[in-house]
Structure formats: C-alpha cells, structure tokens
Amino acid sequence: MTALPPGFRLAGYRVEQILGRGGMGIVYLARHPELPRSDAVKVLDTATAGPDGEAFRARFLREAEIAAALDHPHIVTIHNRGTEGDRLWIAMQYVPGTDGARELDRLRAGLGLRRSLRVAAEVAGALDHAHGRGSLHRDVKPANILLAATDGRGDERALLTDFGLAKIVDDAGDPTVAGTVFVTPSYASPEQLRGDRCDARTDQYSLAASLFHLICGQTPFPGATTAEIMRGHLADPVPRLSSRAGDVPPEVDAVMERAMAKDPDHRFAGCGQFVAALTQAASTPRAAYAPTRQRPVARPVVAPPRGPVPTAVILAALMALGVVTAAVLYLVL
C-alpha cells in the first residue's frame, strides 16, 4: 500500500505525517478540515477486500458505525468514516503518547506487574462496555492499547483502539460471510484459530495473553514460526507467569490459566472479573512466596508477529500441525 505524502488531502483532511502501519492499512496524523485539531485517520488497504469489494466496503462502513457508538473513556473515539475513490478511511481521536507494543520494545523486560494491572483494569472496563453493547474487538493486543500521558507526574491513561473488525454479536440481519479474517497469532484465542464462534470470552483470552506479555516482556507461547505459536494456543498448557517475572506471586498463575482456558466456558464471566481476580492474587505479600528471576522458555524466542495474519496463512499452519485435514472456512460472525 503506497503511503499518502504530507499535504495530501483526503475528504478534506490534510495529511501531516504517518503515525503507524498495520496489517489493514496506514494511520496518519491529519488536520481536521474545519476544527482546530488533528485527528488520527486510518486508511484501509483495499487489497484486504478480496474479490467482493462492494461487500467489504459496506461491512467497513457498518463496522465503523458500530465502533462510533461506543462511548467510554478508555475507548478511542470515532469521529467520522467514509470513502473517497477506492480509499476507505476512518477518522479517530488522536492520542499523543505511545502504545503497549512500543513500550515493550523500549523496556524489553516488560512493564512490570503494578503498571500492567493498572492498564489492564482500564482496558477490561472498555471491553466490558463494548461487550455489553454487543460488540467484539477480536484483535486485542499491546499495539492496540494506547498509553496517553495525562499529567506531569507521568500518570497514564490506557485507551483501546481499532474496533475496525468488531461485529455485532448474533445480528440476524447481517448474513454470515465466509472470507478473510485477520488475527494476531501471539494473542489469538483457540476458537479464533480453529474458526469457531467468537464471543466476549474471546477478547478476554486475548487480553490475558496481552497482559502476560506486558508483565514479563514475553508472549505466553513464543515460537520460531507462526505454526509453533498457534500450536501453543491450541494445545499447550498456559505457562506459569510467576516463573518468568520475579515480582509475580504464584497465586497469579491460576488466574491466568483460567482466563486463557482452551474452552471458553472455563474462563471468567467478564474481563473486569478476570482483572479483579488477578489484582487480588497479585496482592499476595512478598514474604508469602519466593520469587525467581529465571525465565525459562521452551521454544526459541522471536519477535511475535506484529500485524494480523490472514486466514489462508492460519489454515496452512493448522494443516501443517495436523489440527485440520480439510478446508476450514473462517466465518465472520
């Protein structure tokens, strides 16, 4: 996808600079055509639309409206959306600061338990708000958790962004569509990788996997290939977070194991309930456990895939692992 140059005008917005690139497009800082502010404008890569471009365009516009209806202090606000030529764009609240993935790159060893729990509580509130309105995120990951400084003391506010793949749950008016769906393997739930039905507990799993990474600086199932990462989510037990981070008491491990259960029925009822249980477990006095600084990893550690991976790649990896033996259609629900 070719980037738009500074000064380019899109639907009245004047492009100032690139804020980031993702698997679905490019995000720009762009000057609002009328108001004295700059917004974050995401332009989607039309190559992701596949052969049925008109259906993709209609879904995009509808999903943007779903996201725009979410009003929560920890969800990035959607200001507008539209099309111009063959470009699909969505204008969002610009959040100066950083995000979870960049902080992990900067700190290497993770954000630590206390800071990560504060971030998780705010993101969990955002997800429970969205779930209560029938909306799923489907791609919760550190890169989609924005961290905005709010005052001179260094306090920060977490905001969840990119509800672009969200769909209304059980919307009978929207026909089920078989096509390309993007997930980020390092944080994807087993049901997403299998192509099963997703619900609010899917986002809870991805939040837990993201929190695991934020706390200790490692993804729960590292691997040298996408197939190895996926095998971990599908078949391996959840690793003990306390063995990878010295400030994490063993009581946390059982909570993480439940939030990342292979069977969604074994997870918590909501994201807020998960983070509340985790916070209580993390409050165990240090004298009650013997923390370790060792961080054993069963597989070679490589940088997790940042961008989402299309279904075709997932299917190939699953077949290579022997998880499926026939074509699997990932249904966009």
UniProtKB/TrEMBL annotation:
Domain Protein kinase: residue ranges: 13-279
EC top class named in words: transferase
Highest taxon above the source species: Bacteria
Protein name stated in the entry: non-specific serine/threonine protein kinase
Record field: transmembrane: 312-332
Alphabetic keyword roster: ATP-binding, Kinase, Membrane, Nucleotide-binding, Serine/threonine-protein kinase, Transferase, Transmembrane, Transmembrane helix
Keyword Isomerase (UniProt): no
InterPro entries hit by this protein: Kinase-like_dom_sf, Prot_kinase_dom
Gene Ontology terms, MF aspect: ATP binding; protein serine/threonine kinase activity
EC number: 2.7.11.1
